[in-house]
Amino acid sequence: MLFFTQCFGAVLDLIHLRFQHYKAKRVFSAAGQLVCVVNPTHSLKYAPTRCAAAQASTEQGILPPCHHHEAVHDPQLVPCTCPLFSCPWEGHLEVVVSHLRQTHRINILQGAEIVFLATDMHLPAPTDWIIMHSCLGHQFLLVLRKQEKYEGHPQFFATMMLIGTPTQADNFTYRLELNRNQRRLKWEATPRSILECVDSVISDGDCLVLNTSLAQLFSDNGSLAIGIAITTSKVHSSEAEM
Amino acid sequence: MLFFTQCFGAVLDLIHLRFQHYKAKRVFSAAGQLVCVVNPTHSLKYAPTRCAAAQASTEQGILPPCHHHEAVHDPQLVPCTCPLFSCPWEGHLEVVVSHLRQTHRINILQGAEIVFLATDMHLPAPTDWIIMHSCLGHQFLLVLRKQEKYEGHPQFFATMMLIGTPTQADNFTYRLELNRNQRRLKWEATPRSILECVDSVISDGDCLVLNTSLAQLFSDNGSLAIGIAITTSKVHSSEAEM
């Protein structure tokens, strides 16, 4: 009996996912963009992690192992930078993608412009929505995180990391765009390298930040669509060092 | 002696302002944009105001006098909507601009695209930076506010209001753009009518919202440059009612 109940639950989940995917496809098909429905993962870490330990060691004047490739005991090895879990894995930069796919089941999408459709935005913090994006010969990790920086006031943070070195990351610009209800919000920046901690990028606030009220304005039925585009870096024509 | 000290202080202030203006002009001259240096005004209200009273009366089922033109006792009269002061003035919509200029000393700028350079971003909340912008045959009010929505965590809120009716406001789109340090943040929306409370727009979070850390990333020596552009409304091509 329990087996049948579980099977029925699984079928219902599949139908729900299928419905969300078709709805998103219908919306974005006109724009010819690839839509990826991304389900949330309730973050299992937030216990003292490798990054937290790294930050503590930075305060003591020691280089953090997850901030700089050079600081990992074997310079050929990179610790697992998946922001979801405190994972003991470490390996060469070239195999990070396959580790993230196989161990953490993170999907990878191809295309110059994609739409990231994060579902169930109402879930309590901390929650992460994660996907990999393959573009211009490189792989990028998009992280959307719901987190309470100020207790009782959850915010959404979105950033893009290159699965590569900081020098390689400097060659790209990523754009995240929200567009709904006659409102549009765009964030453009150079991606950070995955060798840096996603936690510190988010705690520095150097990413797209949304209050709950803005996230609600841009979301529909609890799903938030983020348009993503990656280009090779060009000097921002109107930018000036003020 | 006191007189000379005061004169010297005034001269120093003038030199400082002049320096800021020339610096901003130098930065933006390449883009051919008009720069306006806007000094902060420490908000004198936040006592129970007309808007607060209006919100209280809304809770009691009475239409707020500052939310809808129709609800003002004389439909030809508009209360003063200057967000700085709890001002008892009311008058016709056509004379709001001259009231704001003459009584509240708010500058007015002309031009399709202007740069709003808010100085002294470090000042404690609540602080407002306000200017009027004349464009496409109408006048708009730009309000940048530093406010502590969550105690101890000041945020910056920027919005644009049309000095006109909500129906007129629907014909325009405004854009606020921050651009510095290889980061760019753009907010586009339909302006609200000045007949609505700027306080409620900000408390709803339906505007450009910046955390202190993001504001610091975009500011230079305590000044934040916001590029402003107003256009007549067009349907956002890629927008979809998701």
From TrEMBL, chains A, B:
Superkingdom to which the source organism belongs: Eukaryota
InterPro entries linked to this entry: 7-in-absentia-prot_TRAF-dom (IPR018121), SINA-like_animal (IPR004162), TRAF-like (IPR008974)
Keywords (A to Z) from UniProt: Metal-binding, Ubl conjugation pathway, Zinc, Zinc-finger
GO biological-process terms attached to the record: proteasome-mediated ubiquitin-dependent protein catabolic process; protein ubiquitination
Catalytic activity line of the entry: S-ubiquitinyl-[E2 ubiquitin-conjugating enzyme]-L-cysteine + [acceptor protein]-L-lysine = [E2 ubiquitin-conjugating enzyme]-L-cysteine + N(6)-ubiquitinyl-[acceptor protein]-L-lysine
EC number(s) from the headed UniProt entry: 2.3.2.27
Single annotated GO MF: ubiquitin protein ligase activity
GO cellular component, one term: cytoplasm
Domain Seven-in-absentia protein TRAF-like: 134-228
Pathway(s) the chain acts in: Protein modification; protein ubiquitination
Name of the top EC class for this enzyme: transferase
Pfam families registered for this protein in UniProt: Sina_TRAF (PF03145), Sina_ZnF (PF21361)
Function in brief: E3 ubiquitin-protein ligase that mediates ubiquitination and subsequent proteasomal degradation of target proteins. E3 ubiquitin ligases accept ubiquitin from an E2 ubiquitin-conjugating enzyme in the form of a thioester and then directly transfers the ubiquitin to targeted substrates.
Domain remark in the UniProt entry: The RING-type zinc finger domain is essential for ubiquitin ligase activity. The SBD domain (substrate-binding domain) mediates the interaction with substrate proteins. It is related to the TRAF family.
Family, per entry: Belongs to the SINA (Seven in absentia) family.
Name listed for the protein in its UniProt record: E3 ubiquitin-protein ligase
Native organism: Cnemophilus loriae
